[in-house]
Amino acid sequence: MTLLVVGGSGFLGSELVGRAVAAGHPTAATFATRPGSTGDIAWHALDLRASDRVEAVVAEVAPRVIVNATSGGADWAVTAEGPVRLAMAAAKYGSRLIHVSSDAVFSGTDVHYDETCRPDPLTPYGAAKAAAETGIRLVHADAVIARTSLIIGDDRRSEHVRAVHELAAGSREGVLFTDDIRCPVHVADLAAALLELATADSTGVHHLAGADAMSRHELGTLVARRDGLDAARLPPGLRAGSSLPGGLDIRLDSRATQHRLRTTLRGARRFLAGEA
């Protein structure tokens, strides 16, 4: 299985590349600014806003499976339109596509969301992610949409872990919300699950989030304890009292997908305690 990881130099992408290479899959990857650290694969510069370049990379690599692990924030051209360009190229050249999406496609009105729930985003980022999902399914009916939540790792490559360290050190201003609930997932579990989907000929929508729902403040406290930081230095706050848009309590129900996987999508209480 030849694999192309789009966004391979990013946090999730680099984990995917490392695991794919370790598993013996012929692998190529793309980058936006600089190649990743894995030197024994082909790296391709790619801007998802450039249709011709997207098609050229897919044609050159001729991958069996493409995993799109990019993150363009609220940039509509990158986050909404770019994945559709990629899906069109994948369909043209006979490649399967796994697109990593987000719980931001939901508003939080219903709190619990399984794979049958329809997106109802509140933020520009969520709207861009939802638009990408719709466009991908229109042009590549067999694509996988893999929604996930906050991605946590063992070091500061994770933006959420980095924020905890900076808040604890006093080098960042802000608070961790006690009313903002998500289902964090470990980057290693997420990457392993995505590779399973890549080798299992899966299609449709899948949820790949951790088993524990928790607030960002509780998550930060657990990260601080794991990393030997003073959790008392993490200021709590209420998102409901802030000007930030977005849903408060959004819990991805991943049980249907979990039943199909060998990989366990551990809850944050488990993986931050060092449990396998």
- Helices and strands: which structural class? alpha/beta
Q: Which strand-content bin applies to the residues?
A: 15-25%
Secondary-structure element pattern, one letter each: EHEEHEHEEHEEHEEEHEEHEEHH
How many E-type strands?
15
Global outline: globular
Characterize the largest beta sheet: strand count, sense, and whether it forms a barrel.
Answer: 7 strands, parallel
Report the helical percentage: 25-40%
- Strand arrangement, major sheet: 3-2-1-4-5-7-12
C-alpha-based Rg, rounded:
18 Å
Summed up, the helix count is 9
Unreliable stretches (pLDDT < 50, length at least 5) are none
Global mean pLDDT: 96
Oligomer: single chain
Pfam families: RmlD_sub_bind
InterPro entries: NAD(P)-bd_dom_sf, RmlD-like-bd
Domain RmlD-like substrate binding: 1-236
Protein name: SDR family oxidoreductase
Report on this structure.
This protein is of the alpha/beta class and 276 residues long. The strands form five sheets. It has a seven-stranded parallel β-sheet with strand order 3-2-1-4-5-7-12, sandwiched between helices. Strands 6-15 form a two-stranded parallel sheet. It has a two-stranded parallel sheet with strand order 8-11. The longest helix has 17 residues. Strand 1, helix 1 and strand 2 form a beta-alpha-beta unit. The model has no long low-confidence stretch (mean pLDDT 96). The chain is globular and about 55 Å long. Helix 1 crosses helix 6 and helix 3 packs parallel to helix 4. 36% of the residues lie in helices and 18% in strands. This is SDR family oxidoreductase. Pfam families: RmlD_sub_bind (PF04321). InterPro entries: NAD(P)-bd_dom_sf (IPR036291), RmlD-like-bd (IPR029903).
